[in-house]
Design a protein that fits this description.
This protein is mostly helical. The chain is built from 6 helices and no strands. The longest helix is centred in the middle third of the chain and has 40 residues, at 79-118.
C-alpha cells in the first residue's frame, strides 16, 4: 500500500492538473467573442488573479506539505497528528473536487436540456470542442475526488 506522503502527492498533483485542464480546455472558452470584447474593459485585477492561482494550484498541495512534515518526511509532526490533519484537509479537497465534478455534470445536463428544448437555436456558452473536453474532464475530476475520498477512508 502506498504511503500517506505518496498518496497525497499523487492526489495533489492530479488536482492541480485537472484544475488546469478544466480551465484551459473548457472554461476559458465559456464566453463568446462579443462578451470577451466587452470584458476587455473590465479585466480581472491582480488580487483576483492571485486568488485563483492560490486556490487552484497552491491549496491542493497543503495535504502533501502536511504529510511531508510528518514521520515520512521531516518528522516534525507525530504520526497521529499528521494523519488527522491530512484527513481533515483531504475531506475538504474531496468535497471540493466532488462538488466541481457534480457542477460540471449539471452544466452538461442543463446544456443538453437547452439544446433539446430550443433545437440548438439558442447557442451554447461553450463551443463544441470545449463541450467535448468537458465530458472527459468531468470524469477525471470525479476520479481525483475518489482518490481524495480514498485517502480519507482508505
Amino acid at each position: 500500500m502506498p504511503s500517506l506522503l505518496q498518496l497525497t502527492l499523487i492526489a495533489s498533483s492530479a488536482t492541480v492538473v485537472m484544475n488546469f485542464a478544466g480551465w484551459w480546455l473548457v472554461w476559458k472558452h465559456e464566453y463568446s467573442e462579443t462578451k470577451k470584447q466587452q470584458d476587455d474593459k473590465k479585466k480581472r485585477g491582480l488580487m483576483d488573479q492571485l486568488l485563483w492561482v492560490f486556490f487552484s494550484y497552491l491549496i491542493p498541495f497543503i495535504p502533501t506539505f502536511i504529510a511531508l512534515m510528518g514521520p515520512e518526511g521531516k518528522d516534525l509532526f507525530s504520526a497521529e497528528f499528521t494523519s488527522n490533519l491530512v484527513t481533515f484537509v483531504a475531506v475538504a479537497m474531496a468535497i471540493l473536487m466532488t462538488g466541481l465534478s457534480l457542477s460540471n455534470y449539471n452544466w452538461i445536463k442543463i446544456d443538453n436540456e437547452r439544446a433539446a428544448q430550443s433545437g440548438e437555436t439558442t447557442p451554447s456558452k461553450l463551443p463544441d470542442n470545449a463541450k467535448m473536453h468537458l465530458k472527459w474532464t468531468t470524469v477525471m475530476t470525479l476520479a481525483v475526488a475518489a482518490l481524495w475520498w480514498y485517502i480519507v477512508f482508505g
